[in-house]
Specification:
By secondary structure, the chain is an alpha/beta fold. The chain is 40% helix and 14% strand.
């Protein structure tokens, strides 16, 4: 039964001339002053979600994006700031890109944020998908096997350090503690100071490809999964649900379909589906322009990716449309009653699912983000029996 509704904001500033025919991704560049408007936008969204009864506000860690798409570089810092501006809303690290951190620095930062927020920050880890970010920080991404190997060792260290009073680790990439003398004795163990206030650490990770290795790793460490974006389309959700259940069964944990998972959707509420398509298509297209080049959209071929770099080619090339994404199941678009029925259908298929996430595409301006946040809370959330509901907050 769905009882918790979350939102996700990747951290985009308001951008102009969006869609396939708009400014190419690589031609966008904004001033530092304008890029920092992302923080006011994030604050406004968080405050409204807090008033309206959302459970968790997820944000994404990214770096160096002068194009304005994903502009929040430090999630624990941002989440702690927002926790001090709100009362009940939780904040999700969706996700700390672990290969760009030393695992102990990440564990310490999260522990401080957990304590100072009174336990309102949810930990999350990811492997990364921007070569400009990950490789610049000295970690592999072009070599996917090396990236996963590093990531898995880092996550093991984070859990060891957080969940144990003292620990040591010896692996391919890290020897902890360093084998050095210290104040008259040989160093053999470390204690993380501080450790999180809530133990064991609740952790989430995105599920994209849904490989057996990834899902087995998550099950082993008790990591919960967020299914979203392209992974939620074309029937892939059901296959992931089954694989997730089977991976836990192998280690003696029997889950209902959907349990310990969150399913994410892009969502746009309008008077009709046709009106929603008309208003949201340009945002869907901008989102695809930005993420398609990163090979996060499985259906795109090389010709389509090249066409999205040039508005002149885009109008002459067959490119995905928002109608396709709606039909495939990755986008909720239309009047509230239609979206409610689609979510109720999801609830019936996956009885263990208790959390759904909705997000805006990159390029959606602040005013529309706030409008959609309020409409979802007041027109859709009340249809779900145990979901928290608040009165409208906007005039």
């Amino acid at each position: 039964m769905i009882t918790k509704f979350d939102g996700l904001f990747a951290g985009h500033v308001d951008i102009e001339d969006v869609g396939y025919g708009g400014i190419p991704v690589n031609d966008r560049r904004y001033s530092n002053e304008y890029l920092t408007t992302v923080f006011d936008k994030t604050e406004a969204m968080a405050k409204l979600m807090d008033q309206l009864g959302y459970d968790t506000f997820w944000m994404a860690e990214h770096h160096f994006q002068h194009e304005g798409y994903e502009c929040i570089p430090n999630l624990p810092m941002m989440a702690l700031h927002l926790a001090h501006l709100t009362r009940n809303l939780r904040f999700g690290c969706g996700f700390n890109i672990t290969p760009m951190w030393h695992p102990l620095r990440l564990a310490e930062d999260y522990a401080m944020a957990d304590i100072l927020s009174g336990g309102r920050i949810t930990f999350g880890v990811g492997r990364g998908y921007h070569t400009r970010e990950v490789e610049t920080f000295g970690a592999p991404l072009l070599d996917q096997d090396a990236n996963r190997e590093l990531f898995e060792e880092q996550v093991e260290i984070i859990f060891k350090a957080s969940n144990n009073e003292s620990f040591s680790h010896e692996g391919k990439h890290y020897t902890i503690p360093a084998r050095v003398p210290y104040r008259g004795y040989e160093l053999k163990e470390l204690t993380l100071v501080p450790r999180p206030g809530r133990l064991p650490v609740e952790c989430w990770q995105p599920i994209q490809g849904g490989t057996a290795r990834a899902i087995d790793f998550m099950a082993k460490h008790g990591i919960q999964g967020l299914v979203g974006g392209g992974a939620a389309e074309g029937g892939a959700t059901h296959n992931l649900m089954l694989a997730w259940q089977q991976a836990h069964a192998k280690i003696g944990k029997h889950l209902e379909l959907g349990e310990r998972l969150c399913v994410g959707f892009h969502c746009f509420i309008a008077e009709s589906r046709e009106k929603g398509i008309q208003e949201a298509a340009k945002f869907y297209e901008e989102n695809l322009k930005m993420f398609g080049e990163l090979r996060l959209v499985r259906a795109l071929n090389d010709e389509q990716i090249a066409a999205m770099r040039d508005p002149r080619l885009a109008v002459m090339t067959k490119l995905p449309r928002i109608e396709d994404a709606i039909k495939a199941g990755g986008v909720l678009c239309g009047p509230p009653e239609q979206i409610i029925e689609e979510l109720k259908s999801l609830e019936r298929r996956y009885p263990g699912l208790n959390r759904v996430l909705v997000q805006e595409w990159v390029g959606v301006p602040k005013s529309v983000c706030l409008e959609q946040i309020e409409r979802f809370a007041t027109e859709i959330m009340p249809a779900f029996q145990k979901a928290k509901v608040a009165e409208p907050a906007l005039a």
